[in-house]
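Category: protein sequence paired with discrete backbone structure
Discipline: computational structural biology
Format: plain text, a pair of labelled lines
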Amino acid sequence: MAKIVVALGGNAILSKDASAKAQKKAVSQTAKELVNFVRNGDQLIITHGNGPQVGNLLLQQSAADSKQNPAMPLDTCGAMTQGSIGYWFQNAMHEELLKNGIDKDVITVITQTIVSEKDPAFKNPSKPIGPFYKQEEVEALKAAHPDWQLMEDAGRGYRRVVASPKPVRINEYRAIKQIVDAGIVPIVSGGGGIPVVERNGQLLGTEAVIDKDFSASKIAQLIGADKLIILTSGGGVYYNYGKTNQVELKEVGIEEIQRHIDAEEFSKGSMMPKVEAATDFVRQSGNSAIIGDLQDAKEIIKGKQGTKIVKEAIEAITR
């Protein structure tokens, strides 16, 4: 039995329809793919993003803000979305496991991610959250929300950006490890975990969002995972993505891919954090990581799809 951490993007949960009904439907479809790991005999650990969800929740909080009913801060909104998305995943996975004749419990762990107050990310917000906006909407948004910072996100539109410090430690990792050892499927570190700083023996929430890929990498390292799989909506890793000479990688070593990271050849708003997180996991653990499309889960399990990042490779293998 292999321990596999699977990281899902927030967009795997939310499409254009932000209703609970639509998101539960999307989660149900995702669970149909994830159950294949359990059917394969693997111990599954699920983590997910929450960028669209927390952004929408912040808009709702802002719209209803009043002295009598003040808006909740970003860290609390992160905890709220961990709970709601975890609830959807618990039910969806429970249903799929039963359909496949598998008697296994699923549990959500509200997870806190410890970050450093000195992390330079606090001075350079870069993590997109919430919905996409058109360029012509930007000025009105800045006027309505003067404290917001907006950034163009990988050619898909503009989004609000907040600080995204790197995870130092996952506060609940020992409890997560015990859950994994008991054979239970945990849903952990939703949205990268609630960002907290340690101060005088306290864990204090801070206005930030942890990148779920870095958080997944940290969890995978702390619980001794055999593999980290980052599932996206865009397939594996490409060199020269979007160009006529683009090529998809089948397998690549960390030394080669690090050169491309250093040259900033991957999109900062989408593929860069995935590649960095996967490479860090491989470097620290010696085990492999895979980046691939959620819809290819069965083929990824068979080793036929996705980009596999390994510690050592003589040369990159392309498709």
Summary: DSSP finds nine helices and 17 strands in the chain.
